[in-house]
Amino acid sequence: MGRCVTDAARALACRDTAAATHLKLISILVIFFTSVVGISSPVLLARYFQGKPAYDKAILVIKCFAAGVILSTSLVHVLPDAYDALSDCAVASRHPWKDFPFAGLVTLFGALLALFVDITASSHVEHSHRTPYKPIGTHDEKKLADLGAVESADLGASCGGDQAEELVKLKQKLVSQVLEIGIIFHSVIIGVTMGMSQNKCTIRPLVAALAFHQIFEGMGLGGCIAQAGFNFGTTAYMCFMFSVTTPMGIILGMIVFSVTGYDDSSANALIMEGLLGSLSSGILIYMALVDLISADFFHNKLMDSSEPWLKKASFVALTLGSTSMSILALWA
Fold first, then answer.
1. CA 33 to each of CA 11, 28, 44, 299: distance values in angstroms, whole numbers, following the listed order
2. Nearest to 251 by CA among 191, 300, 211, 313
3. pLDDT tens digit sequence for 47-105
4. Cα–Cα separations (whole angstroms), residue 239 to 53, 121, 195, 245, 304
5. Sign of CA dihedral 71, 76, 78, 80
């Protein structure tokens, strides 16, 4: 209880609505610019390497860096913030929040939800690309089938390979889209929390920290978008959505505060932040471990067939991505 009183006194001393509003308006521009730079860098880099011998290997290394960023985001940033929100004095003194670890439960639900979406979408994609069985009934049809047997045997391998490659591309597109949904949840939470806050001592260091946060998180998502091979319109739309989500969240938070008077320390705001953060964390943990790291290191033909240096470079990229994003937890 003593800690709660001390925290309340410190927050009251830093409360300055005018200064906080000025800082938030600056942060909208800064975060939008850094988000654009972060997400567009791997996309532009991929287009530069496209058609060159090192294209596939460069994309793989970029994606491994992205996986490290996403994994660190979920475990070092999102989940601890969600736990802190639900453990706050304003929430933890109430039922049922003090009786059960809801942050872990909702994170588990988020991971299971991502698995369910993954299974459902993958089965739909595979079913829609499966060649339908056509029975041969008449004598003439059987003769035609026999005559075409040799030609079918020659074409079977190439058709099967093309179909498998198409399925992999569709899977990569699905992963990128689900990943963006998880990141958008996280970005909205960050933006709304900052927009509702009137604490200038909290916002000032957050502006710089979130700028770097958006660069690395954008690089993570951009690496996945680049590998998925979307057309220009879809790529531009996904990059735009990521770039505007946090600034729009800040504006939404400012509107909520002006209409309701709630700030980021109110119990209802903390509960919403904790639940959405936990859900986002579960989605991102699943996507990072299953659809990014496991898929690239254990189920990627390029990784198996290439020189040993590619595995080492990919692991170094994964470690660098994780480390870079984890260091930012000192400030944001």
1. 30, 9, 16, 36
2. 191
3. 777 767 777 787 788 888 888 888 988 898 888 888 988 888 888 888 888 888 899 99
4. 26, 23, 22, 10, 31
5. positive
Round to whole Å and give the CA distance between 265 and 11. 9
Q: Look up the pTM and report it.
A: 0.72
Residues 323, 66: contact at Cβ < 8 Å? no
DSSP class per residue in 36-51: HHHHHHHHHHHHHHTT
Alpha-carbon gap, residue 32 to 28, rounded angstroms: 6
Helix (H) or strand (E) holding 87, with range, is: helix 79-87
Which residue in 270, 332, 265 sits closest to 86, CA to CA? Answer: 270
SS3 assignment for 172-236: HHHHHHHHHHHHHHHHHHHHHHHHHCCEHHHHHHHHHHHHHHHHHHHHHHHHHHHHHCCCHHHHH
> In this structure, what DSSP letter does residue 328 have?
G
Q: How many CA atoms lie within 13 A of 295 on its CB side?
A: 18
Q: What six digits make up the tokens of 102?
A: 């809801």
State both tokens at 223: 């690496």
